[in-house]
Design a protein that fits this description.
Length: 519
């Protein structure tokens, strides 16, 4: 099952893992070098020939200083060819042949996600997580055992826009693994016992989140940035009230309407041809028929308001750290300013060497990491920036955030920052197409926006043309320090006086659900 975490937290965790792996590699290299040095010292050197001169010895000695090799040009990102087909029942088939390794990945996306929850927040994600708890004649244990036997992996989950069932397997067992995938999609059991058990586990998880300041900050941030009635107002996994009423009949009824082949796209990548993929898909999904009462398309909400800057406090008495989340409604992924916005955010807080992390972590030591980012969704997600900081520097940290928002709007970024950010984005894009699963994931993401795979190199080319003036322009247009919402989860008694002294805006108190409290 796919577990949902705040997108900005995932991004920082990926950066931190990359840094840790890099430092581990450097440490291993240093250890090997040290071992080599010790070995050299313990082995007696052969006697110098009588004819050796001081001059020849000096020529053989290594130089006192070493010059690092110059970096060559970055590799070019070459997009693989995507072959398209449509099955008679409406399933869109996309195939990318990658024959280098005998592996195949399949990703079935069905356009029915959390935006289709209606009045029951969390229903889509709960249903998606139930798909592999039992299907056909197998329970969850039998599914797991057969996947292990086949050397395959299967995952199910849902985001805001779609339910996703992903499968990876060696080519020799891929057809058998596809049988499991078809059972999960077409014949899920949704047994009463399994639904009850998973419902209780979700309720326990929701209760535990009250003790997790990061989770509370994320929930309250969405609650206050997006108004009631907006899809992003409620948590994607629902709350205690919406979860407590879930039962087998409700889950089955939702899936019977959501599982529509006309909403489905099957992406197959790896050592497989279009003909092979079509044959496998027809044999397993060809009989899939559209429901008599499909889910209605979600209505597009009104654009969320952008009120004057305010500070929302959530009390966690005795906390030694404060979780700070700052943001506002974001931007459409298809905006013509996408390249400039992406580069601007990379400089501000979208990379480990960005300004926010450099100042708050490296220079001040207030936090282990600070970030900013745009959550790109078909329905624009939020812009957010934040960090977990020591309680006694909560006000100082918030002052730095707003100072950096102001600086990137008022002062042109340096050419060195531009080049570093361009390299970060360009080289990072190369890592997103390394495996069959990577390519399938990228295709699925682009499909949500109606964008072709060729848009990736086009956007990278646009990023290479962004100037310092472009960065300043989009910062002024899309990042307004006077219209941001600040959420702070921490010890209110300690942090409130300093935050009020900053005079950024009115201060209000809310509980861990985002509801106002009167004190």
């Amino acid at each position: 099952m796919i577990t949902s975490y705040p997108e900005e937290s995932r991004r920082m965790q990926q950066v931190m893992r990359f840094r840790s792996a890099r430092f581990a590699a450097l440490a291993a290299t240093a250890a090997l070098s040290a071992c080599a040095s010790r070995t050299t010292e313990t082995v007696p050197a052969p006697a110098e020939p009588a004819t050796t001169t001081n001059a020849s010895a000096s020529q053989a000695a290594p130089p006192a200083t070493a010059t690092p090799p110059s970096l060559g040009p970055a590799p070019q990102l070459s997009m693989p060819a995507v072959e398209h087909d449509t099955l008679p029942n409406g399933i869109q088939l996309q195939v990318v042949r990658m024959p280098e390794v005998p592996l195949v990945n399949a990703r079935l996306t069905i356009a029915a996600g959390a935006r289709h929850d209606g009045s029951r927040p969390g229903l889509a994600t709960f249903t998606a997580n139930m798909l592999d708890e039992g299907a056909g004649k197998r329970d969850a244990f039998a599914i797991a055992a057969e996947l292990e036997y086949l050397g395959a992996s299967l995952g199910t989950g849902a985001g805001w826009e779609a339910t996703i069932i992903s499968l990876g397997a060696p080519k020799r067992t891929f057809a058998q693994a596809m049988d499991l995938m078809a059972d999960v999609v077409l014949r899920p059991t949704f047994s009463r016992v399994d639904v009850s058990r998973q419902r209780d586990l979700r309720l326990a998880g929701i209760l535990q989140q009250r003790d997790q300041p990061g989770a509370v900050a994320s929930l309250v941030f969405s609650h206050v940035v997006f108004p009631e009635g907006h899809p992003y107002h409620a948590p994607i996994g629902g709350d205690s009230a919406s979860t407590a009423v879930l039962d087998s009949a409700m889950v089955r009824a939702f899936w019977n309407r959501a599982a529509d082949p006309r909403r489905a796209t099957l992406i197959v990548t790896g050592d497989i041809t279009l003909e092979e993929a079509r044959s496998l898909a027809m044999a397993r999904f060809g009989a899939w028929r559209a429901p008599s009462r499909p889910l209605p398309a979600p209505t597009a909400p009104a654009e969320p308001p952008r009120p004057e800057t305010r500070i929302v406090l959530v009390d966690k008495p005795g906390a030694v750290q404060s979780v700070v989340s700052i943001g506002a409604p974001g931007v459409d992924r298809r905006s013509e300013d996408y390249a400039a916005i992406t580069l601007m955010n990379t400089i501000l807080g979208g990379s480990f060497s960005a300004r926010l992390n450099d100042i708050l972590r490296e220079q001040k030591g207030y936090t282990y990491g600070a970030f900013s980012g745009y959550q790109w969704r078909p329905l624009p997600g939020p812009f957010s920036a934040g960090a977990q900081v020591r309680t006694n520097v909560t006000d100082s940290s918030l002052a730095i955030f707003f100072a950096e928002f102001k600086r990137i709007r008022e002062q042109p970024v340096s050419e060195a920052e531009l080049e570093r950010a361009r390299a970060y984005l360009t080289l990072g894009a190369l890592t997103e197409f390394e495996t069959t699963g990577d390519v399938a994931s990228q295709l699925a993401s682009l499909n949500e926006f109606g964008l072709p795979l060729s848009s990736i190199p086009e956007e990278l080319a646009a990023i290479s043309r962004v100037t310092a003036a472009d960065v300043q322009r989009v910062a002024q247009q899309y990042l307004d320090p006077g219209k941001l919402t600040v959420v702070v989860v921490g010890d209110v008694t300690t942090v409130r006086p300093g935050l009020e002294a900053l005079a950024l805006g009115p201060v209000e108190l809310r509980d861990f659900n985002g509801n106002e409290v009167s004190r």
